[in-house]
Amino acid sequence: NLLVAKRPGINHSNVSTYILEQTTFVDHTPIEVSSSLVKELIGDKEELRKFIPEKVLDIILREELYKTKIN
CA geometry: angle at 54 spanning 52 and 55, to 5°? Predict the structure, then answer.
């Protein structure tokens, strides 16, 4: 199954019935923050906490979602 956050004004009429039958749409409170800002502030957790909920920050840190990869 697929969990998808509802977005205002989005029309899913072009999505196949097969996919829609496996999708659960959930209501949420949108956060006005860009991934670019999160990447910029990832080293300053106190500043980042001003923009995203603590639980979201915990997941980002635990899963290392914005970790820079060095080749």
Answer: 105
